[in-house]
Amino acid sequence: MKIKTFAIVAFAALSMGLASAASADGAALYTSKACASCHGADAKTSILPVYPKLAGQNAEYLLEQLKDIRDGKRTNGQAAVMKPIVASLTDDEAKELADYLAGLK
Ligand code: HEC
C-alpha cells in the first residue's frame, strides 16, 4: 500500500516536472511580455472580441504570425497594437511562445 502510494506520488511529480520543463519558458514569456493583458491569462479570454484566442492554435501558424507582426509584414486589423510588444522577441522566444500556446487546451 505504502509503496503504491509512493509510486503514484513519484509519477505525478515526475510528470509535472516534465510538463513544466517543456513549457516553462513559453509560460514565463507569456506572463513577462504581458501577452495576457490582451489575450487573457488562459490565452482564450481576450479583452476585446477583435483580439484573437490563441490557446490550442497550431504552433507553426502561431510562430509565423508572431514573426510577421514583429517584422511588420502583418499589419491588418489590430496588429499595430501588438507590434511594440513583440518588437524585441527573438526567433527562439517566438518559438517558445508558439509551442506553449499550441499546447494549451
Ligand atoms: C496590446 C494588446 C496585445 C498584446 C500585449 C499582445 N497582443 Fe497578440 N494580438 C493582439 C491583436 C489585436 C491581434 C490581432 C491582430 C489583427 O487584428 O490582425 C494579435 C494577434 C496575435 C497573434 C496572431 C493570432 C492569429 O490567430 O493570427 C498571435 C500569435 C499573438 N497575438 C500572440 C501574442 C503574444 C505571444 C504576445 C506577447 C508576446 C502578444 N500577442 C501580445 C493584441 C495584443
How many structural domains in the coordinates? 1
Unreliable stretches: 13-22
Instruction: Give me the secondary-structure category.
Output: mainly alpha
Largest sheet entry:
none
Mean pLDDT: 87
Bound molecules: heme C
Distance between the termini: 34 Å
H/E series: HHHHH
Beta-strand content estimate: under 5%
Characterize the structure shown.
InterPro entries: Cyt_c-like_dom (IPR009056), Cyt_c-like_dom_sf (IPR036909), Cytochrome_c_Oxidase_Subunit (IPR050597). It comes from Candidatus Thiothrix phosphatis. Residues 1-21 form the signal peptide. Pfam families: Cytochrom_C. It is a single chain. This protein has a single domain (25-103), classed as Cytochrome c-like domain (Cytochrome Bc1 Complex, Chain D, domain 2), CATH 1.10.760.10. The protein contains five helices and no strands. The protein has helices spanning 2-32, 36-39, 59-70, 79-86, 91-103. α1 (2-32) crosses α5 and α3 (59-70) packs across α4. The radius of gyration is 17 Å and the shape is globular. 18% of the residues are buried. The structure holds heme C. Heme C binds next to α2, α3 and α4. Heme C is lined by residues 33-35, 37-39, 51-52, 54, 62, 65-66, 76-79, 81-82, 85-86, 97.
